[in-house]
Design a protein that fits this description.
about 130 residues, 3-stranded mixed β-sheet, 5 helices, globular
Amino acid sequence: MSYETRQSKLVYEFLEKNSEKHFSAEEVYFAIKENGGNIGRTTVYRQLDKLVEMNKARKFFSGDNNSCCYQFESESCHNHYHLRCSSCGTLIHTECDFLDKLSQHIFKDHNFKIDGSKTVLYGICKNCEVAE
């Protein structure tokens, strides 16, 4: 990947280094700043959007408050589904034979192919359920 600026490289390398996790733009901003990176908030948001446009990062929306998080785009992320806790915002990556079969059923019986890499199911995680 060619980089336009040192700041765009900082954002890209941070996501790549932490490819198994997802982060809000604010978390990316503070992590880069804590590691001595000289970058502005607006630049982080702009660079994250550019990475999404270039298919180098993925953007997940969080239902009610329309907040989002970002994750480095990797091949491994195309092979599973995502579960998002509506209470704490945790994003869980899961491989599930049942969801694979459901996806096959929807394609076979309804002529619609589900893109698992973009599929996010919303609910309440076990920790939040226990806390209620």
